[in-house]
Design brief:
Blueprint: H1 8-15, H2 23-32, H3 35-49, E1 53-57, E2 59-63, E3 67-68, E4 79-80, H4 95-107, E5 112-116, H5 125-138, E6 143-146, H6 149-159, H7 163-173, H8 188-194, H9 202-214, E7 219-225, H10 231-247, E8 251-258, H11 265-268, H12 278-292, H13 303-306, H14 308-314, E9 321-324, H15 343-351, E10 356-360, E11 366-368
Parallel strand pairs: 1-9, 1-10, 2-5, 3-4, 5-6, 7-8
Antiparallel strand pairs: 10-11
Helix pairs in contact: 1-3, 2-10, 3-12, 4-5, 5-7, 6-7, 10-12
């Protein structure tokens, strides 16, 4: 397909057609359209697909451990498992520690508890079951969104269980949804530079997502961008998420995660010089809407990584959700991104751009305006 051939009206019509835009078309569209045209198209599609409401959850992050066997170059959160007991940075929450965290979450009246951590090879399957059931015991009305897909795969491998068995046991213990994290970038060559062999491949991530969704456990889909990838890798990633959703539905949202390089090995190795541009952030949000918005209607703007001002522009460029309040977030916090937000601040952020803020549950049902 030749580039530089089609104008905005063509791509506007193509985005609204029944047949999804292919990878080849997606890369051609990027060449055809300038940034303003791309964002304008995405914004018009947002109005048609989800309207003017911008949602968010009142969520609390609980990170059970930062010990990790993977030690990925894009991560500043982990402490290598080999340093367990030798580093004052490493931790592993006991169930009693978790109860203290739950008390904090309860005081904040959250509707969702988000649980992720490192690949901790010392933790048995029963640890997670007790952790999840403890959260549900003290907060029976919240939604428990737990673990990235690579974490679930890691736990299955290290405990000698199938993905199906692990998910069924976790669901019985209180798991309502998965977090969708760990997707990074699916392209194999890029993935080799930003992860380690302990983390599953992009193909396995998609396969595991299909299994988990077939068991009735939905979750988000993510992409970490702004490091060593090219635009073609971003288009490929979004198209593969969309096609997976068509095959076995279960993704509640698409959340592009801007790579925050501070304190990461990738930054220390000088493979990146700093964070990506705001223009790139906006184009990624727009691509999410144009390429996947029909199948994954909720395109999320993670304000923790983008900052609030860029987030506001992104909500007029294809975004329709702010993810959540992210109380006690530690993974991005490890890269010195420590900006917080109250419910009132998120409401103001949305109202200032002429849109309607709304609190939602994990499954994107509106709870209150």
């Amino acid at each position: 397909m030749q580039t530089g051939t089609y104008d905005l009206s063509y791509w506007s019509e193509r985005a609204r057609a029944d047949k999804p835009i292919s990878f080849k078309e997606g890369t051609a569209m990027l060449d055809d359209l300038d940034t303003h045209s791309l964002l304008s198209l995405a914004n018009s599609l947002t109005s048609e697909q989800v309207g003017d409401t911008v949602t968010y959850a009142v969520s609390y992050n609980l990170n059970y451990s930062n010990y990790c066997t993977a030690s990925c170059p894009i991560c500043a959160f982990y402490v290598p498992m080999s340093l367990k007991g030798k580093s004052d940075r490493g931790y592993e929450l006991s169930i009693e520690d978790a109860r203290n965290e739950i008390a904090k979450a309860k005081a904040l009246n959250v509707t969702e508890v988000h649980i992720v951590g490192g690949f901790n090879s010392d933790l048995p399957l029963e640890y997670y079951e007790e952790l999840f059931s403890t959260v549900k015991k003290y907060m029976p009305d919240i939604t428990l969104k737990t673990l990235t897909i690579p974490e679930i795969d890691f736990i299955a491998r290290t405990t000698g269980n199938s993905i199906q068995e692990v998910v069924k046991r976790f669901h019985a213990a209180g798991m309502d949804a998965h977090t969708g994290g760990g997707a990074e970038i699916f392209d194999q060559e890029v993935r080799k530079q930003i992860t380690t062999p302990q983390k599953i491949s992009g193909e396995k991530w998609l396969e595991d997502a299909r299994i988990i969704h077939s068991l009735g456990i939905p979750g988000n889909s993510t992409m970490t961008y702004g490091h060593v990838e090219k635009w073609s890798h971003i288009v490929d990633h979004i198209v593969r998420l969309r096609d997976n959703q068509i095959e076995v539905p279960g993704f509640l949202s698409f959340i592009p995660l801007k790579f925050s390089p501070e304190n990461t090995p990738l930054m220390k190795m000088k493979k990146v010089s700093g964070p990506g541009s705001a223009e790139k952030d906006l184009k990624v949000i727009a691509l999410g809407r144009i390429l996947a918005g029909k199948e994954i209607r909720n395109v999320s703007v993670y304000w923790v990584a983008l900052g609030k001002l860029t987030a506001q522009v992104a909500l007029n460029s294809g975004g329709s959700d702010l993810v959540g309040t992210a109380f006690s977030e530690e993974v991005f916090g490890a890269t010195d991104r420590t900006e917080g937000a109250t419910i009132e601040e998120l409401n103001n952020l949305v109202s200032q751009i002429g849109k309607i803020p709304a609190q939602r549950d994990t499954f994107y049902n509106i709870k209150s305006y």
